[in-house]
Design a protein that fits this description.
Length: 83
């Protein structure tokens, strides 16, 4: 055991949907987590007790602005390399 979850402690926590179709059948929970699960299976993320993702949705992220920034970055890279 590496730690505990108790009131007053900070913790990082991932909730993984092990019953998703890409993990069926769930024979070995550890094996499923290590070998079968991928980011789409993460439904909740908590960092230092703060929820960053809930019910599969990022919290506090302006996806339209992020999409704009990522697209601008890609365009700048392509312009630099001459594609």
């Amino acid at each position: 055991m590496t730690g505990s979850l108790t009131p007053g402690k900070q913790a990082d926590l991932l909730v993984v949907e092990a019953d998703a179709i890409n993990n069926m059948p769930l024979n070995d929970p550890v094996g499923t987590l290590v070998l079968g699960a991928d980011p789409r299976n993460i439904s909740t993320v908590m960092v230092a007790g703060r929820t960053l993702k809930s019910d599969g949705h990022l919290l506090g992220v302006d996806l339209d602005e992020l999409r704009r920034q990522v697209t601008a970055s890609r365009d700048a890279i392509l312009k630099t390399v001459g594609s």
